[in-house]
Design brief:
Blueprint lengths: L1 H10 L3 E6 L2 E11 L6 E10 L1 H46 L6 H19 L6 H10 L12 H4 L7 H7 L1 H13 L6 H13 L20 H16 L10 H10 L9 H18 L1
Antiparallel strand pairs: 1-2, 2-3
Helix pairs in contact: 3-4, 3-9, 3-11, 4-8, 7-8, 8-9, 9-10, 10-11
């Protein structure tokens, strides 16, 4: 009891627990007075055996831990299934589109470098969840191309105005597919990020993009980030109608586009991750 009194006097701790053998006790401590405002004449100890109560609480705690573990396992399983579905659809698109073979995989790989550079530069606040969601969403950005006719999708030369108008519908369709695939998924934040990446990655900072002609920061940040990976891959990759550009040429085009095609804050971001991007393409 001396230890309980000392704790009470030092920390004014009125409630504490202690063990005796295999039993657990809860102790409530208070002072008693003979008259109001008078001198304290001692301490009152209300000691209760709470062993069974603590056992129940421990069982509930263990159950909650087990439940949380199972939920996390199921969540991870659902994410894996979604990823396989998305990659399967993306591969279907690329099997039809001989112009952009491997584009989905490459952009899905390099988007991580861009996101990390955005976080290092500090222009925008991107937390771990937002960063993960952008990377997870990247493979979905061109899903809508599955609706484009082969004669347009696989055309080796320049598209006519009419064909280009049809091709531009893929971004709207990509957003629609995201909502269909991720319908009823409990991750509202991820669904929104994936939709924005899919629908708006062809918008331009100067408002001359599509499908809505958004200007500046009207364009969701995740779409502005996706645009960097998407365009850079298009420049340095081989297409049936062009050879891959050199890293120097591609980098100059990217930097020249800052403030017109791209968010001007991406200038320092691109310079930050440029070496990583180049090393990725050299190795792959």
């Amino acid at each position: 009891l001396d230890g309980l009194i000392e704790s009470y006097l030092t920390n004014r701790t009125t409630s504490t627990s202690f063990e005796s053998g295999e039993r657990i006790f809860k102790c409530e401590i208070s002072e008693f007075f003979l008259r109001k405002g008078g001198k304290s004449h001692g301490y009152l100890f209300d000691i209760q055996d709470v062993t069974e109560e603590q056992k129940v609480l421990q069982v509930m705690h263990d159950y909650n831990d087990t439940l949380a573990t199972e939920v996390n396992k199921k969540t991870d399983n659902i994410k894996n299934i979604q990823r396989k579905v998305v990659l399967g659809l993306a591969n279907m698109v690329e099997n039809r589109d001989n112009n952009t073979g491997g584009h989905v995989k490459r952009t899905s790989d390099i988007i991580g470098y861009v996101v990390d550079a955005v976080r290092r530069q500090g222009h925008y606040n991107i937390d771990d969840r937002f960063a993960e969601d952008i990377v997870r969403a990247a493979p979905m950005h061109d899903l809508g191309k599955i609706t484009i006719e082969n004669s347009i999708l696989c055309k080796p030369g320049k598209l006519t105005d009419e064909e280009y108008a049809i091709m531009k519908t893929h971004s709207t369709k990509s957003g629609e597919f995201v909502n269909i695939i991720l319908k009823d998924v409990g991750e509202e934040h991820f669904v929104n990020v994936a939709f924005n990446v899919a629908r708006f990655h062809h918008e331009r900072w100067d408002g001359r993009g599509y499908p809505e002609g958004l200007i500046g920061e009207m364009i969701p940040l995740e779409a502005r980030i996706m645009a960097i990976a998407d365009v850079y891959d298009a420049l340095v990759s081989k297409r049936c109608y062009k050879k891959p550009m050199s890293f120097e040429q591609a980098s100059q085009i990217m930097l020249d586009g800052m403030g017109t095609q791209f968010d001007p804050n991406m200038y320092s971001v691109f310079l930050d991750c440029r070496e990583q991007l180049e090393n990725y393409y050299k190795e792959n």
